[in-house]
Amino acid sequence: MDPRFKATVVLPGDDVTETTTRTTRSLRLGPGLVQHAQDKVMATRAGVLRYRPPCSYWVESNGRRYGARVEDQVLGIVEDRMADSYKVNIFGSCAALLGMLEFDGASKRSKPNLRTGSLVFCRVAAVNKDMETELTCTSTHHGSKKDWMTGQSTFGELRGGKMERCSLLLSKSLTKPDCRVLKSLAKHMPFELAAGLNGTFWVDSGSEAHTIVICNAILNSEVMTDAQTDAMVDRLAKHMKKGLAAMDT
């Protein structure tokens, strides 16, 4: 991190030109920033101005309104089926389209048959200003590619389990390997999780009761310290063990 940059709180309309050009003149602006005439860089939403070397800036805000970005992994719900694609709600400002052949190993004769209400885990393939966002369930070139029919592909339909909506910051934290609440939960119980950068996550533990407990623990952890998170998960695990013991007697 460049020592000349300091994360600062910004509001819509704030001029951040001096801050963003202090480290470099070649800029890559992300969500929450726009460049006007005369090279002025302005904030378009409230949040914290962030910087990633060598030249990326964006405004990080704890909201629920999602703005799609290419390569983001997202959860979406199928709302309609068209001739060669599905209309998917990714809880953003506009609808998204998922092609019927946008699955690893899919062909015209062999492809998933999604229905209205199906939950899919996918990634953003293209973002067009005046058109629908394009989605895909194919793995990236450096990812593990497994045919959709195996049920082991990275992206695709998610069956069973429970999906929850949350803040964008919480869903982003769930994608990090050092996420405290996930590491703490994993010590006590097995579960599957898919986290979308659009303020969504899905959990399946094989037990409806355990899945609900895990979802609630994740949601509660957002306002807790690491120590509080660990203590909360420990208490939940003890309660679940007592419940299982009572059922066996």
TrEMBL record:
It is found in: Nucleus. SUPFAM superfamilies: Eukaryotic type KH-domain (KH-domain type I) (SSF54791), Nucleic acid-binding proteins (SSF50249), Ribosomal L27 protein-like (SSF110324). GO terms for biological process: CUT catabolic process; exonucleolytic trimming to generate mature 3'-end of 5.8S rRNA from tricistronic rRNA transcript (SSU-rRNA, 5.8S rRNA, LSU-rRNA); nuclear polyadenylation-dependent rRNA catabolic process; poly(A)-dependent snoRNA 3'-end processing; TRAMP-dependent tRNA surveillance pathway; U4 snRNA 3'-end processing. Residues 161-208 form the K Homology domain. It comes from the Eukaryota. The lineage of its organism: Eukaryota, Sar, Stramenopiles, Ochrophyta, PX clade. It holds the Pfam family Rrp40_N. Keywords: Cytoplasm, Exosome, RNA-binding. One of its GO terms (cellular component) is nuclear exosome (RNase complex). It comes from Ectocarpus siliculosus. CDD domains: KH-I_Rrp40 (cd22526). This is RNA binding protein. GO terms for molecular function: RNA binding. Residues 27-65 form the Exosome complex exonuclease Rrp40 N-terminal domain. InterPro entries: Exosome_RNA_bind1/RRP40/RRP4, KH_dom_type_1, KH_dom_type_1_sf, NA-bd_OB-fold, RRP40_KH-I, Rrp40_N_euk. The keyword Transit peptide does not apply.
